[in-house]
Each structure stands twice: as structure tokens, then as C-alpha cells.
Amino acid sequence: MIDPIVTKVKGFFLNPVETFRQSINDEPGVVFTYFAAILLFHSILAAFVTAITLKGGIIALVVGFLMMLVGGFIFTILCAAWIHLWVYLLGGRKGIMQTFKAIIYGHTPRYILGWIPFIGFIFMIWSLALSIVGIRELQEMSTGKAILAVAIAVIIPLIIIIIVGAWFISSYMATTGFPMPPGNAFPTSVN
Q1: pLDDT by residue (tens digit) across 7-53?
Q2: 80-105 burial string, b = 16+ CB within 10 Å, else e?
Q3: pLDDT score of 181
Q4: Which long-range contacts (CB under 8 A, 24 or more apart) does 85-92 make?
Q5: In this structure, are residues 31 and 106 in contact, taking their beta carbons and an 8 Å threshold?
Q6: Rounded CA gap, 138 and 134, in Å?
Q7: DSSP labels for 92-148?
Q8: Is 141's pLDDT higher than 70?
Q9: CB–CB of 42/111 below 8 Å?
Q10: What is the 3-state secondary structure (H, E, C) of 28-86?
Q11: Rounded to whole angstroms, how far apart are CA atoms 128 and 126?
């Protein structure tokens, strides 16, 4: 059971295009077993890093593990469904399961190495690029359409986050006022 998962992980790191092509007929059970294994691996290591960093002991370890496991599952499923909307609108007609495969398999670098402090973001970017390759291969789309689908799916939430953040900041500033210096903080011109 471990050998096929390790083989697939190696494939996505060393020869992703061929590994995606070999995965086109993977059944949902195979895909979600792979997902469970790499998510579990990531959750354990990320929880240890969190517990050590926060010096929270066993409680931080358990809470971190559960948050990584549940959050990783929910995030990946919602991400795949959201991206599939854009894949479908841009012509991807091979089904939602192919998009789920592309995202789950594409997130391999993130789940295997993304827990490493300070450089984990590199593996998130790598996973995004790998997901684009997966969408291209599994949905049989052009590279441009695959990039566009993922770009739209990433940019829209970022814009919403920026708008909501700006609204919160402006609301805070409007209700609390700008800090004013004491009476003579601004000198008047001397003639």
C-alpha cells in the first residue's frame, strides 16, 4: 500500500507530466487514499513544527495536527471544486474528478515539503504550477487555458480578501479616528 504512494510521490517530483498521464484512469479510491496519506504526513510534521515553535507542548501538537488535517482536507476539496468551475467554463469537459486529481496530485510538493519553516511557500508555488500541468494533462486543455483557469480561481479570492481587508481598515480608522499629536507637536512658522 505504501509503495504505490511513494512511487507516485517520486513521479510528481521527478516526472510530473508522465505521472499525470499515467494517472488519468486512477479510480477515486486510489486518489483519495493518496490524498489521505500525504495529508496525514503533512499534518503530523506541520503539527510538530507548530508545537516546537509555539512551545505549546502536547496540546499544541494535538490541536495543530487536527487543524492541519481537517483544514487541509476542507481547503483542498473546496479549492478543487472552485478551480473546476473555471476549468469547466474554459472548456474542460473531462469531469470534476479529473480536476480533483489534478489538484490533489498537484499539491504533492505542498503536502510533502510545505511544512518546512521559512521555505514552505516555495512548495505552495510549485504545487500551483504542478496543478496547472495536471489540469492541462487530465482535462486535455491547452496550457494557456489551464493557466487562465487557475489564475482566475486564485485572483478572485485575493481581490475579495484585499477589498474586505481595506474595508476593515477604513472602518477601524473611521470609528477610532486618526491619532493626533499633542497640542504643540506641529510647530508654526517662525517669522
Answers
A1: 999 999 999 999 999 999 999 999 999 999 999 999 999 999 988 88
A2: bebbbebbbebebebeeebbbbbbbb
A3: 57
A4: 85/153, 86/148, 86/149, 86/150, 86/152, 86/153, 87/135, 87/139, 87/141, 87/146, 87/149, 89/149, 90/141, 90/145, 90/148, 90/149, 91/141, 91/145, 92/135, 92/139, 92/140, 92/141, 92/145, 92/149
A5: no
A6: 6
A7: --S-HHHHHHHHHHHTHHHHHHTTSTTTHHHHHHHHHHHHHHHHHHHTT--HHHHHH
A8: yes
A9: yes
A10: HHHHHHHHHHHHHHHHHHHHHHHHHHHCCHHHHHHHHHHHHHHHHHHHHHHHHHHHHHH
A11: 5
Residues in CB range of 42: below 8 A, 6 or more apart: 68, 72, 110, 111, 112, 114, 115
Instruction: Supply the mean pLDDT for the chain.
Output: 92
Q: Provide the pLDDT confidence category of residue 55 given band limits of 50, 70 and 90.
A: confident
pLDDT at 60: 85
As given in the structure block, the three cell numbers for residue 155 are 485572483
Rounded CA-CA distance 150/80 in Å is 10
Residues 73-87 pLDDT 10s: 999 999 999 999 999
Q: How far is residue 29's CA from residue 145's CA, in Å, rounded to a whole number?
A: 28
CA 42 to chain centre: 13
Q: What is the pTM of this model?
A: 0.86
Amino acid making up residue 98:
Q
